[in-house]
Write a structure and sequence with these properties.
Helix content is about 50%, strand content about 15%. It has about 400 residues and is α/β, with parallel strands linked by helices. The chain folds into two domains: about 120 residues, Zincin-like, CATH 3.30.2010; about 220 residues, no CATH class. A hairpin with a 4-residue loop joins β5 and β6. The protein is elongated. The relative contact order is 0.14.
Length: about 400
């Protein structure tokens, strides 16, 4: 698809906090302000991540996200073009804290992988005329490792199912990591986060009040947990989990995984089972005459192979047929995946593919106008003159138009 070129339209910025910091009444979105913000955000990257060489990029579409492995923060220009300056600053501070405190994407997926395996061994499904656990069905097409899931290089025919499930579990851990790292922000910058979170919570509260039944699924409880543990409201269902704000915030990056997966085990099981049924329906990978032949080939005369589903004592979940798992088709599930699209693309190293899908881009003239401010050289000068022996101080601005 062709890119849609957009330009900068001057408008009043929603920049109450930045305006107060600068000591001005209001700010207008224009090339100079966008350059100032770019400069400020690069300064924050040096200030918050002094030991890392972080790249801050400004695509137009998508959501704010970071690649810890690549030391790279991506901040969309779209909110800035809409005037949401304070929110953009908040997003950068948040993503920089991921760089500073969080595991890299590859290590996150490697840490999730054993839990994914354990859950899939508890799910019972029909395959080749046999009752098997989903894990055995997936691996009957060959092993699939976390690295292949991250890179999306697996040739296993069930790989798309594994990609989707891993992405959802990545979102789960990212939500709890957000709770953990946001409390580590410098006190003078917290106001940006509070303003953005309040706006997000108000939108979430409207959804919670009108769609309570579907807010009980995996994605609904994920968002409910996020706002409960951040202190925006009290959720009696979330409070039943064996978690607490202090446990979350006092954990290191890997310490969160065991308690979170124990708390969400039954929801993860329902999610995985529902995704499995949906995948088989959409791809037609159910039982057939060919499957019957393969069962005999793989299992011998009696057609038996695989150990069957087993309960998991560690996660405290029993065996469950995938046919009894709810379909993951709620509005909240769709919303969660839409919000996380670019985060998932980053996790899988697929940013080029994402960016090429008809994105909006800033016109070259507008981008050049923003970057032109880099060519301004500011020099403080002082000269003694015949009539002013004490000297005169002045500032000189030099614009290099050939740079």
């Amino acid at each position: 698809m062709e890119d849609k070129v957009v330009s900068i339209e001057e408008k009043k910025a929603d920049a109450e906090l930045m305006s107060a910091w600068l000591g001005v009444d209001e700010l207008i979105i224009d090339p100079k302000l966008l350059f100032d913000i770019q400069t400020l955000l690069c300064y924050y990257s040096e200030f918050l991540c002094p030991n890392d060489e972080v790249t801050v990029e400004y695509p137009v579409e998508g959501i704010p996200c970071a690649s810890v492995d690549d030391k790279r923060v991506m901040i969309p220009l779209k909110p800035l073009l809409e005037g949401k300056v304070d929110n953009a600053i908040s997003s950068v501070i948040h993503e920089l804290h991921h760089i500073k405190h969080s595991l890299g994407e590859k290590e996150i997926c490697q840490t999730i992988y054993p839990y994914l395996h354990k859950v899939l061994t508890t799910l019972e499904t029909e395959h080749c005329g046999q009752k098997m656990c989903v894990w055995d069905v997936v691996t009957s097409e060959g092993t699939i490792h976390s690295g292949e899931i991250i890179d999306r290089t697996s040739k296993n025919k069930y790989a798309p199912f594994m990609y989707t499930l891993m992405a959802d579990l990545f979102l789960l851990m990212n939500a709890f990591e957000d709770i953990r790292i946001d409390e580590k922000q410098p006190t003078n910058l917290v106001k940006y986060r509070v303003k953005q979170e309040e706006e997000c919570f108000n939108n979430f509260k409207e959804h919670l009040d009108t769609n309570l039944p579907e807010m009980n699924d995996f994605h609904g409880m994920l968002f409910r947990s996020l706002f409960h543990y951040k202190g925006w409201y009290d959720d009696l269902d979330v409070a039943k989990y064996n978690l607490s704000p202090s446990l979350i915030m006092d954990s290191d990056a890997k310490g969160l995984y065991p308690p979170v997966f124990r708390a969400f085990a039954s929801l993860v099981q329902d999610l995985a089972g529902g995704l499995w049924e949906k995948f088989r329906e959409e791809t037609g990978t159910g039982f057939s005459a060919i499957d019957e032949f393969m069962a005999q080939e793989l299992g011998g005369d009696d057609g038996n192979f695989g150990d069957g589903a087993k309960e998991c004592e560690e996660l405290e979940i029993g065996v469950k047929p995938t046919s009894s798992c709810p379909a993951p088709n709620s509005e909240m599930s769709s919303f969660a995946r839409e919000v996380a699209e670019e985060d998932i693309a980053l996790m899988y190293g697929d940013t080029e593919g994402y960016e090429d899908k008809g994105r909006k881009v800033l016109s070259q003239d507008a981008w050049s106008e923003i970057q032109a401010f880099k060519q301004i050289q500011h020099t403080k000068c002082r000269e003694k003159m015949e009539n002013y022996p004490q000297g005169i101080s002045y500032d000189t601005l030099v614009v290099d138009t050939y740079a």
